[in-house]
Design a protein that fits this description.
The chain starts with a helix and ends in a 10-residue tail after the last helix. It is 48% helix and 6% strand. It is mainly α. A hairpin with a 2-residue loop joins strand 2 and strand 3 (110-111). Among the domains are: 4-258, Serine Threonine Protein Phosphatase 5, Tetratricopeptide repeat (Alpha Horseshoe), CATH 1.25.40.390; 375-449, no CATH class. The strands form four sheets. Strands 1-5 form a two-stranded antiparallel ribbon. The chain has helices at 4-7, 11-25, 41-44, 48-64, 70-81, 94-101, 115-136, 142-167, 178-181, 189-206, 230-244, 248-259, 295-300, 322-327, 375-388, 398-408, 419-433, 440-447, 451-461, 477-482, and strands spanning 85-87, 106-107, 110-111, 281-285, 318-320, 341-345, 351-355, 370-374. It is built from 20 helices and eight strands.
C-alpha cells in the first residue's frame, strides 16, 4: 500500500493537482486562469493571479479534499468520539463505529482514525510549498505577497492545532523537502504549540486588518469573510494560548483584541449566526459543492425518515445524544426545536434530535457558509482565561463574559461565583454553545482533567469500554511502517 503521507511531500504534484482542482471546481471562490505551465512551481509565484490561485486552493481542499473534507472529518469523528453524537445502530462502517466505540485500531489492514492525520498533513505541506514559493518571489505586489504568506502561516497553525489536540505529539513539518520530512520524529506538544504561536504572530503582522476580496484588495465592499484576516489570527491565537495552558493573560489579550473590533464583529441572533458573512463570523469557508449549502447542514439535517445506515457525507447516520440534550438548562433557546436543535418524529413515535445550526440541507442558492471561527467562542475563551486568573465577578470579569453568551440564549445570569464553579459553568456553556462544531466537546473534555470520568459514563451508554490512551487517535500504520522515526501512540 502506498503511503499517503509520503505522497503529500511531492511539491510539484501538489501544485499541479491543486491548480487543476481550482480551475475545475472553485471558480465561485476565485476566478482566475491557471498558469500555462502548471508543473513549474516557480512560475506560479511570479504572477499575482496564479499565486493567489495556488493559495486559494487550500481553502477548496478544506471543504472538499481528495481524502475527505476536514470539516466533516473533525466535526463528525470527534463528535462521535465524545458524548454529543449518537451513531445509528445499523451503521457498520468501521471508521464511524471505531470513533463511536472509541475503539480505533492501528494495523496493517488499515488505521481507522488516520484520515484526519493524512488530510491535515497534506494541507500543511501545501502551505509549506506555497510559503517557499512566495518567499522566493520578487515579482509579486507586496500587498499580495504579505497577505498570502500570512494566510499560509495561519492555515499551517490551524492544521497543527488539530493534529496535536487529536494525536498528541506530532512531527513538525515546516518544509516541503521530503528528505527532511521523511525522517521527522514526533515533536512535543509544547514545541508544536510554540510553533503555532510563532506562526500566528507572524500571520498577524502580514495579514490585512480588514477582509480582502479575491484580488487581495482590502476595504472592498464585496469582500467576504472567507480569507483569514488579522482578526482570524488573533482568534486562533487566543484559542491556542488557552489550550496550551499557563498563558491565560495572552489568551485574554488576544480574545479582547477580537471582541473590541466592534466595526467588524458583533454577536448575532441565534438564527443568524451561521449565515454567510454573518457579523459573528471571524473566518468561514465558502461551500463549493453543487446543489448544497454547507456539508455540515447536508450531513447533520435528518430526512423525514430519520437516520440511516449509510455512512459518509451522503448519508445521515448520526443524531444528538441524550447526554448533550440533557445538558441544556430549562429555557435555553439554543435547544428550542427549530433553533439550534431540530427533530424528526417517525410514525412509530421515535424521536431523533439533530444539530440545526445550519438550516439548509441541499439547495442551489447558497445562504450559509461553513463557520470555522466565530465571536461567541472568543467570549468563552476570555471568560475562562479571566476565571483562571481569579477575575471572577463584576464588570469585565469571567462572569460578565459568560453572561453575554447566556443572555443571547435567553438564560439568566450565572449564579457561579467561585473559581471552580465558574470554570465548570464555562465548560458547560462551551458544551451547549459549541456543540457539533469542530470537535470542541472532545477537545474540551481532554483538557478538563475529567476525561476518564466523562468517558466511562459515555462508553457505557455506547456499549463500549473506555481506556485512557483512547484520548488520542492512532497514527496511520502506513506512516509508522514507512518512517522509522515515528512511534505509535501508546496502547495501539
Amino acid at each position: 500500500m502506498k503511503n499517503k503521507f509520503k505522497k503529500t511531500l511531492n511539491y510539484k504534484f501538489l501544485l499541479f493537482l491543486g491548480l487543476i482542482t481550482l480551475a475545475s471546481g472553485c471558480e465561485s471562490f476565485i476566478e482566475t486562469d491557471p498558469p500555462s505551465n502548471r508543473l513549474n512551481g516557480l512560475n506560479v509565484f511570479k504572477r499575482n493571479e496564479t499565486a493567489i490561485a495556488a493559495v486559494t486552493e487550500l481553502y477548496g481542499k478544506l471543504v472538499s479534499g481528495a481524502t475527505g473534507n476536514i470539516v466533516n472529518n473533525v466535526s463528525l469523528q470527534a463528535g462521535l468520539s465524545a458524548d454529543e453524537l449518537t451513531l445509528f445502530n445499523s451503521v457498520n462502517d468501521l471508521t464511524h463505529l471505531s470513533a463511536y466505540k472509541n475503539n480505533f485500531r492501528a494495523s496493517q489492514a488499515g488505521t481507522y482514525g488516520g484520515a484526519i492525520w493524512t488530510t491535515l498533513y497534506q494541507y500543511i505541506l501545501s502551505a509549506n510549498s506555497s510559503i517557499e514559493g512566495l518567499e522566493s518571489s520578487d515579482s509579486l505586489y507586496p500587498i499580495v505577497k504579505n497577505q498570502l504568506l500570512g494566510e499560509c502561516y495561519f492555515v499551517r497553525s490551524f492544521c497543527f492545532f488539530y493534529l496535536t489536540t487529536l494525536y498528541g505529539d506530532v512531527p513538525l513539518a515546516l518544509t516541503s523537502d521530503p528528505n527532511i520530512n521523511n525522517n521527522l520524529k514526533r515533536s512535543s506538544k509544547d514545541d508544536v504549540y510554540s510553533q503555532m504561536i510563532s506562526d500566528l504572530k507572524l500571520a498577524k503582522q502580514l495579514l490585512s486588518s480588514s477582509y480582502v476580496n479575491r484580488d487581495m484588495l482590502p476595504y472592498s465592499s464585496n469582500a467576504e469573510r472567507i480569507r483569514p484576516n488579522r482578526g482570524a489570527a488573533n482568534a486562533l491565537l487566543a484559542r491556542v494560548y488557552l489550550f496550551w495552558g499557563g498563558h491565560d493573560i495572552e489568551a485574554e489579550a488576544a480574545a479582547t483584541e477580537v471582541i473590541n473590533q466592534t466595526e467588524l464583529y458583533e454577536l448575532q441572533p441565534l438564527n443568524n449566526v451561521f449565515l454567510k458573512n454573518s457579523k459573528e463570523a471571524i473566518w468561514q469557508l465558502q461551500p463549493i459543492r453543487t446543489g448544497r449549502n454547507t456539508d455540515n447542514g447536508f450531513m447533520f439535517i435528518l430526512p423525514s425518515t430519520g437516520p440511516n445506515a449509510t455512512a459518509g457525507i451522503n448519508g445521515n447516520p448520526v443524531y444528538l445524544s441524550n447526554s448533550l440534550l440533557n445538558s441544556f438548562e430549562p429555557g435555553d433557546a439554543r435547544s428550542s426545536i427549530g433553533m439550534w436543535v431540530n427533530r424528526t418524529i417517525l410514525p412509530n413515535g421515535t424521536v431523533y434530535n439533530y444539530p440545526y445550526k445550519y438550516k439548509v440541507k441541499a439547495v442551489s442558492a447558497v445562504t450559509e457558509y461553513e463557520m470555522v471561527l466565530r465571536l461567541g467562542e472568543q467570549y468563552l475563551i476570555r471568560a475562562e482565561a479571566r476565571a483562571k486568573q481569579g477575575n471572577l465577578t463584576g464588570a469585565n470579569s469571567a462572569a460578565s463574559d459568560l453572561n453575554i453568551i447566556r443572555a443571547r440564549a435567553g438564560l439568566p445570569a450565572t449564579t457561579a461565583t467561585s473559581q471552580l464553579s465558574l470554570y465548570e459553568a464555562i465548560l458547560n456553556e462551551r458544551r451547549t454553545e459549541l456543540f457539533a462544531e469542530w470537535g470542541h466537546r472532545w477537545l474540551d473534555i481532554k483538557r478538563s482533567g475529567k476525561i476518564d470520568q466523562i468517558m466511562n459514563i459515555a462508553t457505557t451508554e455506547k456499549l463500549s469500554t473506555w481506556r485512557n490512551f483512547q484520548k488520542y487517535y492512532p497514527i496511520p500504520f502506513a506512516d509508522i511502517q514507512y518512517s522509522r522515526a515515528l512511534v505509535q501512540n501508546e496502547g495501539y
